[in-house]
Design a protein that fits this description.
Largest sheet: 5 strands, antiparallel
Number of domains: 1
Structural class: alpha+beta
Number of helices: 3
Number of strands: 5
Distance between the termini: 23 Å
């Protein structure tokens, strides 16, 4: 994110904690939209009881398309989709980890670890360093 609050789409590479937090807020809003669309199609599918195979196939294709669209948009924002509504963001020494419906970015895991081994950001070695650096930036802009 630049000084004007604009996120660089097609972002690749490592993100600072602040950048990841900003991107997650955009991903969260995007995900809410896709969750609503996919869930409404799933409710429709469940109500059909397999009576109309063509309609069932069409709705299933729409669900898959929505999920693929979500994956593509998350990647353009610098995220790595790891499952349904689960996103990793490269921190330089592992991944910031976010899963819908979490409101904020709160977890991290190593490159070789996964969702099951994620830990709260406050327990990561770089969290305090990033926090102190962010606080120094805020103070220097106030002076």
């Amino acid at each position: 994110m630049d000084n004007y609050g604009v996120v660089d789409i097609s972002r690749k590479g490592q993100l600072s904690l602040k950048e990841a937090e900003d991107v997650v807020q955009i991903i969260r809003k995007l995900t809410e939209k896709y969750v609503f669309e996919v869930e409404s199609k799933m409710v429709r599918l469940e109500s059909m009881d397999g009576r109309n195979l063509d309609e069932t196939n069409r709705i299933e294709a729409e669900v898959n398309l929505k999920i693929q669209e979500w994956h593509s948009k998350v990647r353009k924002l610098g995220g790595v989709p790891k499952g349904l509504w689960l996103v990793d963001l490269d921190s330089g020494n592992g991944y910031f980890c976010w899963k819908y419906p979490e409101k904020v970015l709160g977890f991290w895991h190593g490159y070789e670890d996964g969702f099951k081994n994620r830990i709260p950001l406050s327990e990561t070695p770089n969290f305090k360093k990033d926090l102190i650096s962010a606080e120094k930036n805020v103070v220097s802009t106030l002076l």
